[in-house]
Structures are given as C-alpha cells and as structure tokens.
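Researcher: We're teaching a course module on how sequence relates to structure. For the next exercise, students receive a sequence and then see the predicted structure as tokens, so they can try to spot secondary structure elements on their own. Here is the exercise chain.
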Amino acid sequence: MPKPETQPVRARRLRPTARAWGLMISGALVIVVAELFGVNELRFFGIALFLLPVLTLLLRLIARPKLEVERSVYPTTVAAGDRVRVVAEVRNKSIFGLEPTTYMDVVTGTDSNHIAGVLAAVASRLHPREGRRRRRIAYGLTRMRRGISEIGPLFLENIDGLGLTKRVIRVGDPVQIEVWPHVHDVDRLDIPALRTGSEADVALGRSGDADDVVTREYRRSDALRRVHWRATARAGELRVRQEEHHAEVVALVVFDTMPTTHPYIDPGFELGVSVVASVLTRLHALGYDTELLETHSETEPEETELMRTSASEHLGRVMRHLMLVQPAKHEDDNDYLDLGARVASIGRGPLVLVTRADAPNHEAALELAEFGAPAIAVLCGPRDAGADSINAFINAGWQVVHMDTTARNPWDAIRRFGVAE
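Model: And here is the predicted structure for the students to work with:
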C-alpha cells in the first residue's frame, strides 16, 4: 500500500492578517480614548489606524494578480530512484506587479510532499523588460517512488508590503509523470540462464535447426559475436541474429503478490517489482517470448493475455502494469492452484519466481519447479529471515537467490543457492 500523500496548502481568498486586525482594534481603542478625553488629534490618528488595513484590503481586491505558469518536466517517464528536473516559469499578465512571494510546488511520489522557496518580484505586463515580467523556479527531484506521480499545482502566498493582507494563489495544473520500476543488470544474480539463454539453445537443438534464425541489419551497438556470417554473405551486408528462435520457448516470470503486513510501503515487495522488471528485460533482450503471471492476480480474465510479450514487441505495456501493481488485498490459496494450471498449460521453459522471503511456503508454488528449465526462485527479505523458505525451495528443485532488503543496496547483497543433490 502506497504511503498517503497530503496537500500542504490550498488556495485562499484575500483576507486581513493578524497585523491588520491588530491595527484595526488599536485604532478603535484610540478613537474611544479620544472621544473620552476630547482630543481631536488622537481621534484622527485612531481613524488612520483603523482605515489603513481597510483601504489596503480594498486596493488589493482591485489589483488582483493574473498569473500563469508554464511547466517543463523532463523526463516524463523515469525509473524509480532516477532524477527528474522541473522548471516552472511564472508569468504576470496583470497591469499590477507581484511582490516577492513564497511558493510551494506540490509533488507526490517523493519523501517530501512539496518544494518551497521564495519567488522574486514579478513586474506588471507593462514593464518594458521581458525578464522582469517572468520568473523561473527550477529544482530536481530524486528517489521518485514507483507509480504515477504529480508535480503541481503551484501555490503562491501573496502578502502586501505592509503585511496587512494575505492570499494564497493556485497557479496551473499538475503534470503527471510515470515512474517505472528500476531495471538492474541481472548479471549480479549470477544465473547463467539470465546471461546467455543457453537453456533455450539446448531446447532448440533438440527440436529444430539452430541456424534457422531471423536476422536484421547490423547496428553500431551490436556485438560482433552476433553477426550471422551466412546471412551476411547472402545479403552482401552485415546481418546479425535477432535470436527470435528463443520465442520457441516462453519464459515465465511469476510474481508473488500476496497481501502484505506493512501498513505503507513493503520493501520486499518493491524490491520484487524491480527484480521482475529486470528479469523480464533480460529475457526479452535474449529473444524470448515472455509472460508475467501473478500469484494473486486481480486482473480481469480477458486482460491476462496482455501480460505476454513476444520477442518482437516492446515491454512498455508490462512495465506500465508493474508501475501500478500492488499487493493483493485478500489471501486466497485457490490463486496458487489456478496459477499452477496456467503454468502447466504454457509448457516447459525458463521460470523465475519472485517472492518475499518471509512469505509462507505454499505447496502449489513450490511444485511449479517441475515446469521450469531452469526454475529460479528469487527471495526478497532481511538476511536473517526466510531460512526455512530457502531450504524448502532448494529441496523442491529450485535454484534460489536471496536478496537482503535491509542492505544499503540489495543488489550488492545477494546470496545464491544451488539445487539440492
């Protein structure tokens, strides 16, 4: 469950400040004293004190600022933890200038729910210098959380020079950015199948011609080892293997989305999302058709097919799904049974199960190992948790990788366990 966001401020109409009320009360008291003692000078002074806030309020009602903001956010699609650059340009369309003002720019999906600062005075639209008629706010956001985040609206706390009136102005609308799961290099998991796709080559050798591959033109970033010399000779130009022969075997990634006990953000679940995205990216790069399954899927049945991506497609659809995925709200063991039937219908191929180390061992999940070639279980959790889970997966025939969620960088705190002899 994501941490709830709060809006720090809201727009407010023009109103007197505490100083204005103080002057008005003081003026009224002075007038009363002047009437008691018959001092005309004191009466005029009291009237001046009383009217100053009133006149200021009336003038400020007439001289309303007309502001607009043009916001640039780049990039608008980022990976969790990446930096976002925000530039907001405030322009004055009124014939009246705007005094120096404090601002708060609302943001979601970060540790802070707003960015605050001071905006320099903005001249009226009649000012001859363009630079004085607009002011720029620029800042960076780091450690963005997975999901759809919003930047804006901008709130300006406008106080007159005497500090007698105040209003909060809302300027512009929020801009949405997509924060996808962070994709890491899975070489750190030290799993050969995720580095070379060798298991699919073996399977192909038993079922077809390894030279029967799809090729494409050579690109500058392609490794020379991928050059298909026979196709190059026929075409008269460099051709490289597209390795779509891996699509003969569907690579499955199963994500454990069982309910969590964490009230807000479960670090094991968030790490799991990153692992799933990283593994899918590597398997897709190796040329596999990939399919994402969830143990407690709340997706409609007709939408489950959308989680399969062919080797020729882009992973954007699945990444957007992972951007929004959350732990299930309710536990149901039948979800595992339905999952087992679905995996069995797909066939034998690379299978990666990503789960939390402290999750209970479900027999149906352990039995999925028979459909994996290889079967790899990635357990995410504290280093001292999940020992029983690790042993259970190993004994069931899984290769096991444990990632420590309490480490500064879990991708540097990886333990790998082989299959039980």
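Model: If you want an answer key for the exercise: Residues 15-62 form one domain. The first helix runs from residue 18 to 37.
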